[in-house]
Amino acid sequence: MCNANEDLDKICETLDKLTLDALYLMQEEIDLKLNIENAMSGGEAHLAKSRYILGLTNVSALQLPTENSPEFSAGLKVEVDEALLGRNVYNLREIKKTEDENVQEPLRWFGILVPQNLNFAQKMFRQALQWSVQAVNVQNQLRSVLQSISNLKEVKTKNASS
Question: Where is coiled-coil annotated (predicted)?
Answer without folding.
Answer: none
